[in-house]
Each structure stands twice: as C-alpha cells, then as structure tokens.
Design brief:
Elements: E1 14-15, E2 18-19, E3 23-24, E4 30-31, E5 41-47, H1 58-63, E6 87-89, E7 95-97, E8 104-105, E9 112-113, E10 116-117, E11 123-129, H2 138-154, E12 159-162, H3 163-166, H4 180-187
Parallel strand pairs: 3-7, 5-11, 5-12, 6-11
Antiparallel strand pairs: 1-2, 4-8, 6-7, 9-10
Length: 200
C-alpha cells in the first residue's frame, strides 16, 4: 500500500504567492523565475515620485505602466521604463503587492549578491515610500517586520539587504536614513542575515 506524502500546509496569510494583508495591484512587469533556484533574498528599496513627494498614485502608476511622465519634469526620465517590485509600503503603512512572490519582479537591475549576479532571479523586492538618505515612518517598519516574518513562512530566506548593497555603483537606497539596527532588533534574526552596519 502506497501512502501519499502529506501536502505541505500553506500559511493562511498567503494565497498563491499573494500576501493577504496587502492590497493586490498586479503589474504586467513580471516573469518566470529560473527553474530550481531558491528565492532566499529580500532587497529593500526606497522610492517616491516625484522625488520627496508622498501619498500620490505615481509609484503604483509606474509599476502598472500608466505613469504620465509629461506632467512633471522630474518624471520625464521614467518614460518607457518597465519596472516593478513585489511590494510597496506607503508612509501610512498601507502595503500594495504587484507581483506574487513565486514570480520574478523587475526591481534590482544589474546587481550581485555574494558573488551571485542577477538578483531579480532569486529575490523579493520591497519598496518603501521614502527618499534615500531620509528616515522612514514607524508604521512602515511595523508592516515591513510583519511582511518579512510572513515571507520566511513560505520562502527559505537567508538574507535581507539594500539596493545600495547589491548595486553600489548605481544605487544609494534605502540609504543612511534606514534603521537596519532597529529592524534587526524587531525581527530578532541573526546579524548574519543583514548588511554589516554599526550597532551603536
């Protein structure tokens, strides 16, 4: 008699790669991940459009390919850009999800983590509404902590890093205003999972 293997229980917080607490806003800018590659990295970013402006629809519009880049000179350089992230956490704590976590979002660009290139292939991208170098809201850290714990339920996460750490020649986000030490304390994960930052 053949005994079937027990089905892996999917945490109730997830629905086919979508985090239930997040508002779904599917982006066309996504693709298949390479077969057999573990998704074990989270990359944190910061974004605001126009830069330094918060609360508007522009970031979501960018990820949905409907951003009007003609209405503000600061948006002109984004014309024709096709990018996305898995998640976007606004200043007020709202979380929007654009791509299911088992699929590849287009957030990291040319990048390398611990000798592995093409970080989009094996990472989840989380955008925080903010400006590189400036601070973030307590509500954002609270939601980010919840999300990272939830991601660890369904993915074999080994590390959380910043865009600035995987593409240092091109990017500076989330920048010195991001509290890596505080995030580490909230999660109570090993320091080895985070960028090497001062603890004091």
């Amino acid at each position: 008699m053949v005994v079937p293997e027990p089905r892996r229980k999917v945490p109730v917080a997830w629905d086919e790669g979508w985090w239930r607490p997040a508002r779904r806003s599917p982006s066309p800018n996504q693709g298949e991940r390479p077969a057999g590659l573990a998704v074990d990295l989270v990359v944190l970013h910061s974004i605001s459009l126009p830069p330094g402006c918060y609360g508007g629809p522009e970031v979501e519009d960018l990820f949905l390919n409907r951003l009007d880049t003609t209405r503000d000179p600061q948006l002109a350089a984004l014309a024709g850009l096709t990018v996305s992230a898995h998640f976007f956490i606004r200043r007020d704590g709202e979380c929007v999800q654009f791509v299911p976590v088992h699929r590849r979002a287009w957030h990291a660009g040319v990048s390398t983590f611990q000798g592995r290139p093409a970080c989009n292939d094996f990472s989840v991208g989380i955008e925080l509404e903010g400006l590189e170098g400036r601070t973030f809201e307590r509500r954002q850290y609270g939601v980010l902590t919840q999300l990272l714990k939830a991601l660890r339920q369904v993915l074999p996460l080994r590390a959380v890093t910043g865009h600035e750490h995987i593409a240092p020649d091109r990017k500076r986000d989330p920048g010195p205003g991001f509290d890596w030490v505080g995030l580490r304390r909230q999660l109570r994960w090993s320091p080895a999972r985070f960028p090497d930052v001062p603890t004091a």
